[in-house]
Design goal:
Beta-Lactamase, about 40% helix, five-stranded antiparallel β-sheet, elongated
């Protein structure tokens, strides 16, 4: 009621006004009304209108309105102020039926003693009130059961698309336009009121447009208005409103809900609706099968209970970020404990649904079974690790033997033999580096490497890295230059793995730099991180390769790149080291051949 166009219009008026309910209770009135009758703000709300007007009931007040009119001007009323003083009043009364509260009246008061200027203002406000009634587009009708006649308002005729000059029998027209399936429902409110079952009734039905092109939805309400001395209902008043837009919205929503329900229930991956406390509010068949529970049993538990203890903290941390609005959604792999005690792997994707006020309401989760993929990944990792270890032991012996042979001076080998020994040594070293890289790659991929972070002066570590890679620089005919503009800056690193990252980046920079050029190493401090950059001038990174550069075993497809050697694992290992120690890594490459690889280390120790 408070949101209707009529009430909104009334609230803007500067003249005394009020709205009264079925029993005469005062529902709304403005400050001007309180001032007119000498009451404090809101003191009149809830009182009966008979406290201030000389009338004994709402029916007496309503008798001034002669159908088909819905309003009337009442002159000569003598109201009573709070102190009991008489107030000469003119009242404009307007009646209408509210779907929820029944027959109501709006009263606009004018103090009969006010000057003409105030009278003029009241008239203008009255016009606004009448316009508001029209703007509400509520058709009003009155049915006389004695004469079986109906009187309708202009808006009622408008809803039936009947011109003022149209002499069509409105009852016949209305009945012919009713949807065949809704005839009984449309006539039910009138029957209920006439038979005395209830004072008020309402219904919804479909009404065909005049051109027959479509159906409109109508909401109708009826109220008993008059009875004879024997209590028989002789007059009914009612209202009619076009609710087609609301019905269309309801139907669209219903279809949308049905589509979601079908997609949810029939999805081949597990789906669930999770409460803020972690309880399962709904789950589909795929999730029940994955976790080994019936739907009834699953809805009695929560995701915390079903999550493997070792994976719970990581999930809860992400969930807290989601609830705080720090992230829009998240995805993690974690282990679940089935009803039979078996441990399975699931790829969990979680999104949050908010309520109308923007507060977290519940979560939508999707869980894909990745148990087999994880088992295969573990088998592959074990296989690669086993093969690599089996290769490294004999390879170390072979390299030792070759090194011993190359050191013999007493009986030098022929040039051909020495060349073969040298080739064998170089290939052995490359194979040894490959085995080491594969082992590192597998350990970092499985997060099995222990990283020990401590605070270090970054420039000191860079100087160590440059000294350790001087042979590489000489091999490719380049030099390393360190910028010392921020020599005192510190960060948290694992010093051994930091040197591994620097060696990979410095070696790459040297391989692809122009001969006799300088590779620039710079350090820049930021509030939460330190950024280390390695820049060279030479062969740029092809556009087709930029998306793959940090992927394992990736190398640009050209003969020049292949001739420089490498396993294709260095940058991937560097990325894993940097990210697992709390930093980020990336690169920038321009068309003129200038390439910068950079990575960051945290200023504060990561959690």
């Amino acid at each position: 009621m408070d949101n209707s166009p009529i009430i909104n219009a009334f609230k803007q008026m500067q003249v005394p006004l009020m709205i009264i309910g079925v029993e005469g209770e005062i529902l709304h009135c403005n400050n001007s009304t309180h001032q007119l009758f000498g009451y404090d703000s809101n003191d009149l709300i809830g009182r009966n209108v008979t406290d201030i007007l000389p009338t004994t009931s709402v029916a007496k007040l309503n008798a001034h309105i002669k159908p088909p009119a819905i309003d009337a001007s009442i002159n000569g009323l003598i109201g009573r102020s709070r102190r009991g003083d008489a107030i000469s009043l003119m009242v404009q009364a307007t009646a209408w039926n509210d779907d929820e509260h029944g027959l109501q009246h709006s009263l606009i008061f004018k103090n009969a003693t006010e000057d003409a200027k105030v009278d003029s203002l009241a008239e203008r406000e009255l016009i606004r009130a009448n316009n508001a009634l029209k703007g509400a587009q509520i058709g009003v009708f009155e049915y006389d059961s004695i004469t079986d006649t109906v009187i309708v308002s202009d808006i009622w005729r408008d809803l039936l698309e009947l011109a003022p000059s149209d002499t069509t029998d409105v009852q016949v027209e209305w009945r012919e336009r009713l949807h065949p399936e809704d005839i009984e429902a449309a006539q039910e409110p009138t029957r209920i009121c006439l038979e005395g079952i209830s004072e008020r009734a309402s219904c919804e039905y479909r009404l065909r447009t005049k051109d027959g092109s479509r159906w409109r939805w109508i909401r109708a309400s009826t109220t008993v208005d008059l009875k004879d001395p024997d209590g028989k209902v002789t007059r009914i008043v009612g209202s009619m409103t076009d609710i087609t837009p609301q019905k269309e919205a309801e139907n669209d929503l219903r279809r949308s809900v049905a589509q979601f329900r079908s997609a949810f229930d029939n999805a081949t991956v597990g789906k669930a609706i999770i409460g803020l406390d972690g309880s399962f509010l709904d789950a589909n068949a795929a999730l029940c099968e994955f976790l080994g529970y019936s739907e009834e049993d699953l809805l009695k538990t929560n995701f915390q209970t079903l999550t493997h203890p070792d994976d719970l903290d990581a999930d809860l941390y992400k969930l807290d970020l989601l609830k705080a609005g720090s992230i829009p959604a998240y995805q993690i792999e974690k282990r679940y404990i089935r009803a039979d005690g078996a441990v399975v792997w699931g790829l969990l994707s979680v999104g949050m649904v908010k309520d109308a006020e923007g507060k977290p309401d519940h979560f939508i989760s999707q869980i894909a079974d990745v148990t087999e993929q994880n088992q295969l990944r573990e088998m592959r990792s074990e296989f690669v690790t086993t093969v690599s270890h089996e290769l490294r032991t004999p390879l170390t012996s072979v390299l030792g033997a070759l090194s011993l042979l190359s050191s013999f001076d007493d009986e030098p080998f022929s040039d051909d033999v020495q060349r073969l020994i040298y080739i064998a040594q170089q290939n052995g070293k490359r194979l040894h580096a490959l085995v080491n890289d594969i082992l590192d790659f597998e350990k970092f991929s499985a997060r099995q490497n222990l990283l020990v972070l401590s605070k270090h002066r970054i420039v000191g570590l860079l100087e160590e890295a440059v000294l350790a890679n001087m042979v590489t620089a000489q091999k490719f005919g380049v030099r390393y230059d360190i910028g010392f503009q921020e020599s005192a800056v510190t960060g948290y690193v694992d010093p051994i793995r930091f040197q591994q990252v620097m060696t990979n980046l410095l070696t790459n920079a040297a391989k692809f730099a122009d001969k006799d050029s300088a590779i620039e190493i710079s350090v820049k401090s930021h509030p939460k991180e330190v950024r280390i950059s390695i820049t060279n001038q030479g062969d740029g990174i092809p556009d087709t390769f930029k998306d793959q550069i940090f992927k394992p075993f990736s190398q640009a497809e050209n003969s020049a790149t292949r001739s420089r050697g490498g396993t294709g694992l260095g940058l991937n290992i560097s990325k894993q080291i940097v990210e697992q120690t709390g930093g980020t890594i990336g690169f920038d490459s321009t068309q003129d051949g200038k390439t910068t690889f950079w990575f960051t280390v945290p200023v504060d120790k990561p959690n």
